[in-house]
Design goal:
The structure holds three protein chains of three kinds. By secondary structure, chain A is of the alpha/beta class. Chain A is built from eleven helices and 19 strands. In chain A, strands 1, 2, 3, 4, 5, 16, 17, 18 and 19 form a nine-stranded mixed beta sheet that branches. Chain C is α/β, with parallel strands linked by helices. Chain C has a five-stranded parallel beta sheet. In chain C, strands 2-1-3-4 form a four-stranded parallel beta sheet, with helices on both faces. The longest helix of chain C has 20 residues. Classes of the chains: A alpha/beta, B alpha/beta, C alpha/beta.
């Protein structure tokens, strides 16, 4: 594999232009006027250079649901979106609750080569919420799991949650909670509010998310653990995290791109592309999470990329699956909702989409463009106008809410450990 | 669009009077007579004809309306029409002499629809047809019993009937 | 009218047109021969994913009175895992040449999904979708209120100035939602009376007043009181403690019915839980319109099918006026 490159004229973190020289997959020099003979040169004039993006929340569906996505197609989608690392959620089949399954996922990622796959382990056996899974075994495996989650399900039993928070201290792990009180959301279909009342769809009230987060931050404080909150979606949740951080509680939170942009008004046509868990919320919630991301209350953006086959979306709302693919569109959505509005600059984007997620997940070697770091680089062109279409999707599933939507910007190059995975706007089909 | 007048107010009045006499003559009096106008202008004409007949025969003649919208055979060729009123006089139509009244007779399809509508309401002993203007071009074997005026026309011409009660004046014009 | 999916988007003129045509249809039903040839050759499919004998029979009668061919399709289960998907069922009907599909489904929004999916070209009539809407029920309710109030003079009139109280489980009621929109569009004043657990948390955008006290609402002398069916299963999900308590606080018993003005009517979409939300005395009194609602339902559904199918069928943009 050729892992030598020179990138010229890129705006580092949106700032001054510089050249980056990469040798054997490592950044060896950053400066001006760099040349290396016999080495491919990438002209990055006009492009923003970010450290390779890291997604702390992706569903790769393999093993078990290969009809929706595989590790190969999922990491191709990731690369297309500028991601060089993805944390794979454990709701596979079998569930990733043992060392064996997480090591398999790691191996599949390595074989595919498009992005670094870091498996997330389940908190409880089968994600059933009853007994702790062998978290220690997963942490000690080749997959070096540090993030544990029952995502898809809430760790609802407060005692189990407490034990899990305590237990992972042994290997500096973190529990990533999917905050959803199951009793308050039985049969829930969409955000509980004005729209749900009219549409006759059972509501998923904000308090079902907020009450769990409130409980969990107090538990984390009590036992002295780290806590991570997945896909935070409501204004009330942002307030609780802000309060908790002020108190010194070691909590981190993520927001999805779709919760930065879309509201429950889109559900009015019962188009199941907009069905997701947690559901799209109100405009007030969107404003609050944007402000939370801008002021650091929310630490990162994570896609919650959730592929589903067409027949699970082309049907009546009630039986449609929850979820949207998001890897390919994430950076463009963050650009439109946060950078174009002046709430974040590119250095902030590098933090929320690369260094901070890598830090929370304890993934070494990601998150910075500096000499000596592995060469994970994303080159993004913010000036390209455009509509998001099918051709932008590279995973196996196409359940994107952005199809047909105006979403300017394009990932022009993605470089994973010095290997080009997206070459001048095109996904590389056979990795060199 | 050149429009020429073929019937003026006085012509229409004379035609109605003659039709009234013809109806009474053919029916040998007013016994069992019922006039049913086909909306819209057939009803207006029936409302005029009734009193004229009553004046001649010195007896009240029941007058009503029969809407044909739901019996038309060309519904799918036009935008949806709202049906109009059907008002059958007290005593119904069974065993009676029903005289259908309409303004213009053209293809005959409206009358066919009216006959179907009548059939669903009852069983008259006789059905007759009184028309103000017969413009020819029948598509069905339907003929009027009482005609105000025969006006030869080409298929593409338009025959317009205007009546005081609805249109402010009485006249029949034909325009090409 | 291309589809009838809800009353939320039904304009006043369109609603009055349906009610007035229903008057014409009602008249034909007193003729010797009730059958009309109007929809001869058209095929109406009753696509009922939820069991409902009364509504299905009503639509069937309406279609047959207009000489349309009726195909009854009863599909058990709507989830993909249970069997044929909505899409496959719809495309089968399209292949059968359905001109109109009357659909009842347990999933809110299913008729809209059917109508906008591009799977079928037939007109879609919503016969009740989940807890969302039941437009023909609201139309027949409005028709009934208007008829009782104005009799032979109903044509062209709306319901301005009339006060309607809807009592019961609004949260889960598609009949309530459809009535709220339609009655307001027609100018009526709507009050909802429900236990606090059975009304959506946020109805601030609804053109209604919400009360928890039935006696207070009845004391104002409304023109029509519409009782909604309460499902006893709601008791198990803690919406109310016991049937007895529900009936005491929100049931229309004989005493309450007697306090109503002479001309007020009592309505119920059926089927009734006698003794629970409505007492037998109230259900069987002269004020009760329960049976008329059924008869009027056929006339209203005849009008809907006529307006959907009789004229030239244009594409999405061509409204048949």
């Amino acid at each position: 594999m050729n892992r030598n490159l020179v990138i010229t004229g890129a705006q580092l973190l949106g700032g001054d232009s510089a050249d980056i020289a990469i040798e054997d997959g490592v950044i060896v020099e950053i400066g001006a006027g760099l040349t290396r003979s016999g080495v491919r040169v990438i002209d990055a004039a006009g492009l923003v250079a970010l450290p390779g993006l890291v997604d702390l929340h992706t569903h790769l569906r393999e093993p078990g649901f290969e009809a929706s996505e595989t590790v190969l197609t999922g990491t191709q989608a990731a690369a297309a979106g500028g991601f060089t690392a993805v944390f794979a959620m454990p709701n596979t089949q079998p569930v990733a609750d043992t060392a064996g399954v997480v090591e398999q996922e790691l191996a599949l990622g390595e074989a595919a080569g498009y992005a670094t796959v870091q498996p997330i382990g389940a908190v409880t056996v089968g994600q059933k919420g009853e007994r702790l899974a062998e978290l220690g075994a997963m942490a000690g495996s080749r997959a070096r799991v540090r993030v544990f989650s029952d995502d898809g399900f809430c760790v609802w039993d407060p005692l189990i949650m407490r034990r899990a928070l305590e237990y992972v201290k042994a290997f500096d792990g973190v529990i990533a909670q999917h905050a959803q009180d199951p009793r308050l959301t039985q049969g829930a279909q969409m955000n509980e509010g004005i729209v749900s009342a009219e549409l006759g769809l059972a509501g998923w009230p904000a308090v079902a998310e907020e009450s769990i987060i409130a409980r969990d931050v107090l538990l984390a404080e009590h036992v002295g653990s780290r806590l991570h909150v997945c896909h935070l979606s409501t204004a009330g949740s942002v307030d609780i995290i802000r309060w908790a951080k002020k108190r010194g509680i070691r909590v981190t939170a993520e927001v999805t791109p779709h919760h930065l942009l879309l509201t429950d008004e889109l559900v009015r046509d019962y188009d199941a592309r907009y069905k997701v868990n947690p559901p799209l919320r109100t405009a007030e919630d969107v404003t609050a999470v944007r402000e939370g991301l801008a002021d650091g209350t929310i630490d990162i953006v994570a896609t919650d990329h959730a592929p589903h086959p067409a027949e699970n979306k082309a049907c009546e709302w009630q039986v449609a699956a929850n979820g949207m693919v998001g890897l390919e569109s994430a950076l463009r959505v963050v650009h439109q909702s946060m950078v174009a509005t002046g709430m974040l600059d590119w250095a902030d984007v590098a933090r929320v989409m690369s260094s901070a997620p890598a830090g929370i997940g304890q993934l070494q070697g990601f998150g910075s463009l500096e000499v000596g770091a592995p060469a994970h680089v994303t080159l993004y062109d913010p000036s390209v106008p455009g509509v998001f279409t099918e051709t932008d999707l590279h995973g196996r599933s196409h359940n994107s809410p952005y199809l047909g939507r105006d979403l300017p910007g394009r990932v022009q190059w993605t470089i994973h450990g010095g290997v080009v995975t997206v070459d001048d706007g095109q996904l590389v089909q056979e990795l060199a | 669009m050149a429009a020429r007048t073929v019937l003026q107010e006085a012509d229409i009045a004379r035609a109605l009077t003659r039709i009234a006499h013809e109806i009474l003559e053919s029916n040998r009096g007013a016994e069992g007579l019922i006039l049913l106008g086909i909306p819209t202008r057939g009803v207006t004409l029936a409302d005029r004809l009734g009193p004229i007949i009553a004046g001649i025969a010195d007896t009240e003649i029941p007058v009503g309306s029969i809407d044909i919208t739901l019996y038309r055979d060309d519904l799918s060729k036009h935008p949806t029409r709202a049906p109009k009123r059907t008002e059958i006089p007290e005593g119904g139509i069974d065993g009676k002499t029903v005289v259908l009244v309409d303004d213009v007779l053209f293809s005959g399809r409206s009358i066919r629809a009216a006959l179907d509508a009548i059939q669903s309401i009852g069983r008259p002993s006789v059905v007759r047809l009184a028309i103000l203007v017969d413009r020819g071009h029948r598509e069905l074997p339907i003929r009027p019993d009482f005609v105000g005026k025969n006006i030869p026309s080409s298929r593409t011409e338009r025959v317009n009937v205007r009546l005081k009660e609805l249109d402010g004046a009485d006249e029949v014009t034909i325009e090409s | 009218m291309r589809h009838l999916l809800d009353t939320r988007s039904l304009e006043r003129d369109e609603a009055l047109r349906i009610l007035d045509v229903a008057e014409d249809m009602a008249e034909t039903q007193s003729r010797q021969i009730k059958k009309l040839p109007t929809l001869l050759g058209k095929t109406v499919v009753n696509l009922f994913f939820e069991d409902s004998t009364r509504t299905r029979i009503s639509f069937e009668a309406a279609a047959k009175r207009l000489s349309a061919d009726v195909i009854n399709f009863s599909a058990k289960g709507s989830s993909v895992s249970k069997g044929e998907s909505l899409k496959d069922t719809a495309q089968t009907l399209e292949a059968m040449g359905a001109d109109a599909v009357v659909v009842r489904h347990s999933a809110s929004g299913a008729p809209r999904t059917l109508a906008t999916s591009g799977w079928i070209s037939a007109g879609v009539v919503n016969a009740g979708d989940g807890t969302h809407e039941h437009p023909t029920q609201a139309l027949l309710d409005a028709f009934t209120i208007r008829k009782r109030r104005y009799g032979a003079d109903s044509r062209g009139r709306d319901l301005s100035g009339l006060r309607v109280v809807i009592v019961g489980d609004v949260l889960h009621s598609r009949v309530a939602r459809s009535n709220v929109w339609l009655l307001s569009t027609l100018g009526a004043d709507v009050t909802l009376v429900t236990p606090p657990t059975l009304v959506p948390q946020n109805v601030s955008q609804w053109p209604v007043r919400v009360l928890y006290d039935l006696d207070q609402a009845l004391a104002e002398g409304p023109d029509a009181v519409m009782m909604l069916r309460i499902q006893v299963e709601r008791m198990h999900a803690a919406f109310f403690p016991t049937e007895r308590e529900y009936s005491r606080l929100w049931g229309l018993d004989a005493l309450r019915a007697a306090t109503l003005p002479e001309s007020s009517i009592v309505m119920h979409p059926g089927p009734m839980n006698r003794g629970l939300e409505i007492s037998s005395e109230a259900a069987d009194s002269p004020r009760s319109t329960v049976l008329e609602q059924v008869t009027n339902g056929v006339s209203v559904r005849m009008a809907v099918l006529y307006l959907l199918l009789a004229g030239e069928r244009n594409d999405e943009r061509g409204e048949a006026k």
